[in-house]
Structure formats: C-alpha cells, structure tokens
Write a structure and sequence with these properties.
It is a single chain. By secondary structure, the chain is α/β, with parallel strands linked by helices. It has two domains: 270 residues, Aldehyde Dehydrogenase, Chain A, domain 1 (3-Layer(aba) Sandwich); 184 residues, Aldehyde Dehydrogenase, Chain A, domain 2 (3-Layer(aba) Sandwich), CATH 3.40.309. 37% of the residues lie in helices and 24% in strands. The protein has 14 helices and 26 strands. The chain has a seven-stranded mixed β-sheet, with helices on both faces. Helix 5 runs parallel beside helix 6. InterPro entries: Ald_DH/histidinol_DH (IPR016161), Ald_DH_C (IPR016163), Ald_DH_CS_CYS (IPR016160), Ald_DH_CS_GLU (IPR029510), Ald_DH_N (IPR016162), Aldehyde_DH_dom (IPR015590).
Length: 500
C-alpha cells in the first residue's frame, strides 16, 4: 500500500511530489467512501494552492532536468517499460478502483491491463515527432521547424475510469516530452499514487509525474497556475466550461472531454438479439456512469413494443451486488450525491409524464444495506419535452422513444447540445454509412457500442468537448512549433524592409 500512514484502519495518503509522499501544507484531509458498503475507505490530502505550486515547481524542474535531456527514443522506451509495470500490477490497481467507485472488478481489471497498449503506442511515437524544412524563394535562406513540448501539463481526471482516462490523457503528453501534475477525482484518488510509483519503478525520473489530491480549490489552482501550459480535463460540461473560461483568461490551452446524452438507434431491420445486448450495455454497464452512455434509445415503431418488452425483462434480471464478486452484473453508483441525482431526475421525469417501465428507486442489496445501489430504470415514450432527455443523468436510467422514419430519428438524435457518441443497429450498409456522416457525434458505432482503442481518435462535438485523445493526432495537442530561419549567404538586408 502506497500510503504515508494509517488512520482508523484505513490507508492515509499524502500528495506525491518530486518522487516523495508529502503531507498537505495545511495538514487538511478528506475521506473517501466505499459505495458498496457505505463505509469509509481512506484518507487523502486536501491540497491548497501552495501544494499545487510545489507540484508545478517539481514538474518544471524535471522538464529542465533529466527528463528534458532524454532523447525521444529513450523517453519512449521508458513509457513502454511503464506499461509493462502497470500490466503486472493490474489486479491490485483494479481492486483499489472498484473499492472506491463501485464499478465491476472485471471491468476495472480489463482497463488496467489494456493501458499498456496506450503506453506502447505513444512510446513508439515519441521518436516519430519530426520537424520539416520549408522551401523558400530565396535559396540562401534555410527555414526549418522544431516540434517542442509545451511544458507542464495539468491532467484532471474523473472517478469512473481513473487509470484508463489518466493514461489516455498522459501518454501523448509524456511522449511529446512534457511533464505532468495529475489531480485525480477525490472519489478515486488511490490508484493515481500506484501509477506514479510504478512510473518511477520503470525508470521515469522523479518529478515527471506528480499527484495532488483534493476538491475544487486544488483543481482551480491547477487551472489558473501560470506555470501550467495546458489543461486536460475529463468531467462534466459545467466544470469544463468554467475551466475553459479560466484557462482562456491567461491564454492557456485546453483539451476537454465532457458529458454526453448519446443516442442509440434501433432500426426495423436490426438483428434484435445484437441490438438488445448493445442497448443494455450502452446504459447499464458501469451503472450508467460513463460519458458515452447510450441514455437515449430510439426504436422503430414497428418493433417498438416487443423490443422494449425484451429490454425491460432483461433489466429486471440484472444482478446487483458487490462489484468485487464475479456474479455481480451491476454495482452501486459511486457517491451519495450521484444517488440523490438519480432519484431526483427520475422523480422529475415522472412529474413530466414519462412512463416508468421498470426500476426508478434505490435498491437494497442483502448484506450491503448501506450501499448506494439504484435499480436499472427504463422510461418509455419520452420526448424532448421531458427534462431527462436533455440532461445527463450519469446513472442507470434509459429513455426509450419510438420513431417512424429515418429523417425523424436523425433530427431527434442530433437534437441535443451534446455530441460525444452515437450508436445504430441496422443491416443496411447504405443507411449505416449515410447516418454515420450525418450524426453530430465524435464517435459513431454501427452494430456495436462502447468500444475504444489506443489508435482511434476519441472526443466530442458541440458541448461534449474540445480536442481528441487516442490516435497519432493526440500527440499534436501537446507540441508547439518553432520556426528557425538562417541566412547562409553574405547578402546585407535592408534594415527597413521586411525580408520575404
């Protein structure tokens, strides 16, 4: 356990700055809760602006020191070694996360194992970053470009997929030669320390990856710190807008991966077994606590009633329980605040006239009576007039709406301020690819749902974000270009005329 001491039988963590665990300067702390049991899990440093400043200074020193002096190839090899270390420790990392966010151990374990693919990929790209020679009219002038790191990057990640999102965010930034100050969610802070420890065990110099924990004050301090060149944030739309405004006031860049209200469209010619599984996976996997959740299902009217009957029957059979156990299909929601939000938004939907088909209340699981469980919930006949169709629930709540024709459902699917993802189920190749072009979403799945890869770009349209992770273009967001000019001849320039 990577803790500085223990308190009340649970681990106690400090910040991780410059390769050392250190207590918060003001010795303030907060407690995280295990949502399955409802009991305290661990204690973490409540960081202030002073702690953030320490971390940024450590990251700046590493950038100017051993990390900055490494060749790109050597840097890439260290990222690959780090990926191997994480894969070796995937199960304990996953267990830490499941105990803190309530997601299935099988999913957290799978995510912790596959992040090595991101580090292998971006480690391999580290020495593929190249400048160029610019052809000019004047043969005596040499003009070329250099691609250089931005500097210190602030990475602020959510609680639902901590390791995966952390590595997705950090791998291209590190491959480009930047250093990191990482702020994990206060709900799932523990795994960040394990990742930082494993990075140094793999040979990445101290100070390249620093971890500060805390609530809003520490996040604000990272966004506004003059030593931070760019902010990478994954989280809610309102928080993303606030971060973008603060960063913009000092002309710092942002990559933002925000919320979604994704459409999952089932056409009449769909393979219904496949579509049923995809719609269920789109919303009830991870208890609906994913930005790509397919929370709006549109089903062709000709198959609407039998298809919805199938969904409801399957939803009622989902096994709630301890996410550490293999037989569990859905764990608790992560926080009491999220549980309250689920209850409130379901209540609003009922007030608005949406038809509750199943679920809709807090669930009690024997042996875990204090756990934060919510029933898999389905509403039928919902429209854009219902508030729940316009706002992200981030819980296990599905809205199902019938449609009659392609143009109608396209307008409904695009009729949201979000644009993170969309899915469709059809046997028509013509329709599938035509819709893929017209759907306003950063990711479109055809006859599948909820899939990501290290080499396929991911990000949102509209209010779902700015920029992309994954794929070769991700590294471009962490580089700046310098243009170098050199006169090779002996010509004397007119001092009062621009050289062109």
């Amino acid at each position: 356990m990577n803790s500085i001491d223990a308190q009340g039988g649970h681990p106690r963590y400090g910040n991780y700055i410059g390769g050392h665990q250190v207590a918060a300067r003001e010795n303030e702390s907060f407690v995280s809760i295990n949502p399955t049991t409802g009991r305290e899990w661990g204690t973490f440093a409540q960081s202030t602006a002073a702690d953030v400043d320490d971390a940024v200074l450590a990251a700046s020193a590493a950038l100017k020191g051993p990390w900055g002096r490494l060749s790109p190839s050597a840097r890439g090899r260290l990222l690959i070694a780090w990926g191997e270390k994480i894969a070796e420790h995937a199960l304990p990392i996953a267990t830490l996360e499941t105990e803190q966010n309530g997601k299935l151990l099988a999913e957290m374990h799978a995510q912790a194992k596959i992040v090595k693919d991101w580090l292998f990929y971006f480690g391999g790209l580290a020495d593929k970053v190249e400048g160029s020679v610019i052809p000019l009219e004047r043969p005596s002038v040499l003009n070329y470009t250099l691609r250089e790191p931005l500097g210190v990057i602030s990475v602020i990640v959510p609680w639902n997929s901590p390791t995966l999102i952390t590595i997705m965010s950090m791998a291209p930034a590190l491959a480009a030669g930047n250093t990191i100050v990482l702020k994990p969610s206060e709900i799932t802070s523990a795994s960040a320390f394990e990742l930082a420890r494993l990075a140094e065990a793999a040979g990445i110099p101290a100070g390249v990856i620093n971890v500060v924990t805390g609530a809003r004050e520490s996040g604000d301090a990272l966004v506004t710190h003059p030593g931070v060149a760019k902010i990478f944030f994954t989280g809610s739309e309102p928080a993303g807008r606030s971060i973008a405004a603060k960063a913009g006031s000092r002309l710092a860049g942002c990559t933002l991966e925000l919320g979604g209200k994704s459409a999952n469209i089932v056409f009449a010619d769909a393979r219904l077994d496949q579509a049923e599984a995809g719609v269920l996976a789109g919303i009830f996997a991870a208890a609906g606590q994913t930005c790509i959740a397919g929370s709006r299902a549109y089903v062709h009217r000709s198959i609407y009633e039998p298809f919805v009957e199938r969904l409801v029957a399957r939803a009622r059979q989902i096994r709630l329980g301890n996410p550490l156990l293999a037989e569990t299909q859905m764990g608790p929601v992560a926080t009491s605040a999220q549980l309250a939000k689920d209850i409130t938004m379901v209540g609003q939907a009922r007030e608005d006239g949406a038809e509750l088909l199943c679920g809709g209340t807090r669930a009690t699981v024997p042996g875990y009576e204090d756990g934060l469980f919510f029933e898999p919930t389905i509403f039928g006949g919902t429209t854009r007039a219902h508030r729940i169709m316009n706002e992200e629930v981030f819980g296990p709540v599905l809205c199902v709406t019938p449609f009659d024709d392609d143009e109608e459902v396209l307008a409904e699917a695009n009729g949201t301020r979000f644009g993170l993802a969309a899915g469709m189920w059809t046997c028509s190749l013509q329709r599938a690819h035509s819709f893929a072009k017209r759907l306003e979403a950063g990711t479109v799945w055809i006859n599948m749902y909820r899939a990501l890869a290290f080499n396929s770009p991911f990000g949102g349209y509209k209010a779902s974000g700015v920029g992309r992770v994954n794929g070769a273009q991700a590294i471009e967001q962490y580089l700046q270009t310098k243009s170098v000019w050199c006169e090779l001849g002996n010509e004397v320039q007119d001092p009062f005329v621009l050289r062109t």
